[in-house]
Design a protein that fits this description.
Length: about 100
Amino acid sequence: MSNAAIYARVSSARQKEQATIGSQTAALHERAEQLGLEVCPQWVFCDDGHSGATLVRPALDKLRDLVAQVPVEVVLVYSPDRLARKYAYQALLIEEFARAGSSV
């Protein structure tokens, strides 16, 4: 079975109140199952209350470290803006993950 890591992010108080981290991760776990991907519980990364306008986020840093060190076949993200707000940052991260052998 192929493996996957999950990344979810919310930045606003309203998003926190609506538990969108939980809904994002639930949807991503479901998608992983549909694709036949195994998600290790330690490979679920959530930045709760961190802006997507910067690349300096605790869970994103941990995900980037994991992808650089361990073969992660797929990184699942609910939508591109959860990965980063700016298209240039999205492209940078996707390219970084691709160089490590991970698809997004």
